[in-house]
Amino acid sequence: MELTPIRKGDIEVGKPLPWPVYDRKKNLLLAYGHVVESQHQLDLLMENGLYRNPVWKKTAAADRFGEKDDPSKLEIVRFTSIGIEPGDVLQMQISDETEQRYGVRLIGFLEKRSVLVTPPMVNEEVILMRAGQGVMLRGFAGKHAYAFSTTVLRVCNMPYPYLHLSYPIEVRGMKVRKAVRTRSNVLGSVWREENPGRKFSCTIEDISFTGAQITSEENLGEADARLVLYFRVAGQGSAAYVTAPAVIRRVFEAEGKKHRFGVEFMNLEQGDSFALQVLFYQNHFEIS
Is the pLDDT of residue 67 over 80? Predict the structure, then answer.
């Protein structure tokens, strides 16, 4: 893909971008349709150099949520309509990095002004960010997947580290027909709630925010039996161990020595819930 520099007059403040915007390394900074909200924001972006594909056409846009998903199902919605709440986990992709994703939390937002999130971290160390840097945020709310591009307005360190991001006028969303699940294949252990001293190996084959499908060589019980899962979640240069109380909701037909169960998580601690969301985003289809 050959890129051409964008001149300052090519972008109009307050109007949707007619094409995607890239940096000199061909990393996506701003998606098609993103709205640059102020002259100050535009000036910050232009300082680092902006580029576009001169032969790009809307019909060839990379506005997709996964290669197997139908782009015609995408909806353009307002940020306030997606149902996101303070404390929810988002997946952040920094424009300077092509693949790495980081889990951040929404702190809050002021409509049409800015969005506040925790900074991305590795090994419990804050990643240095700068004003004018582009990021892509992705997430789920209910049965909707969504994504939006935004720009760092300000990096704050007091009284704790957080980022002010430009307020997204439009968000790309897609309704997911079934419960959102992702393949995981995480090894762990499981025990019956009434007998914590007897633990068994298990594999968490897929996972969602509310439950999982697990396999074990041990018959763990019938529907409504209470279990506890324990497994490791690695990500962002660190690891967390999750203890997840669960209830068997479905028992599948045994395959030889392998028993498969559908379980629902119950009363997760906040830290365990956060780790589960990080695992989910690590493995789920990508929202581009």
Answer: no
